[in-house]
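User: Can you help me understand a structure? I only have the sequence.
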Amino acid sequence: MSDTSEQAEDVRDSSPDEVGDGLPGGGDGSPDDQRDRRRAAWRGAERKLSNDFTSRSMGETLAALVAAGGSVYDLDEGPDIYGDGVVAELERRVAALLGFPAAAFFPSGTMAQQAALRGWAGRTGNRTVALHPLAHPEVHEGGALSVVSGLRTVHPTREPRPPTAEEVHDLAEPFGTLMLELPLRDAGFVLPSWDELVAVVDAARERDAVVHFDGARLWECASHFGRPLAEIAGLADSVYLSFYKSLGGMSGAVLAGPASLVAEARVWRHRYGGQLFQQYPAALSALLGLERELPRLPSYVAHARVVAAALAEGLAESAVPWFRVHPEPPHTHQFQVWLPYDREVLNEAGVRQAEETKVSLFRLWREAGAGPPGVSVTEVTVAEAGLEWSAEDVKAAVADFVERVTG
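Assistant: Let's start by predicting it. Here is the structure, written out as tokens:
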């Protein structure tokens, strides 16, 4: 199992980019034809900087799960029924790993955070949530916090970084919960320092607010903070983590926190339609991720710094007028690359590189969404596949890619 965040994380990554990326197709040029050409190029590449879960068929994925699943759970047991069995075992293991009294498995992180934040609103008597405007609920969930749960959001800062303690302390209106996304994905997978994080949490508590971590990718933050996962999670009153973004699970998320909050969240999980009859493939793949991918994440983070530095060197030596690798060095095993070209040009160059050289350097480019037109950004994830790339491999691939962009 491998990290899949670049390929299938949000609606943004499948629409409109996934269905209309501007690539000329080999057939009628339709969006489906363009998408199929891009996927075929990625699947056909023999060297890929980022892992590609789409290369496996459903049959191959299920066969791999059966072959490996017995190492983390007894496959002779019956499947889960409404959250018992392997799902309950996953919940127990994660609660112990994070140092919380209880945890609940959810089919999605969006649902998990809905349940957590409305639970805290009831306990604090304040339905206002302070969070960053680039946080996942504000950008990728269709306004669900307000539309579905009746919550209101305020923003301590609009800077493309986590809020500071001073910004939290000086926020002009009261809030019941401070939600911190760690790392802040849409700002470049950025994190505060450990001392800054502690100060922000303390500032929220001074305002009688609770703290919830949107820790979809908290798994890979330990290297940056220099602390074990339980110590990081222990700063918050509750934490949500994803099983597919970093651990390579099929789907699903977990909410960990006090027993009473988790018990209430289970009630809302049922009300939201998340009390599924059976979820054992997702739960089993999550257990495999905990067993196999979690111990590897520090090596991915370390090598991401090598890759990012090589990308910067290669781009500096190339014909591009300017570029940005952000953050530099990366805080986790994921980071952004910015270039001053339309996404159609960059996506076409990437597809042709994969088709003609069997090397896939970048995945999907999108419009930057800020600044002047003609600026595009992509996300780079360094996981198992990326460990095979040396700095010289990266620089050689950059030179070839830029030639296809500028030539």
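Now, to help you interpret it: The CA atoms of residues 3 and 288 lie 13 Å apart. The longest strand covers residues 334-339. Let me know which part you'd like to focus on.
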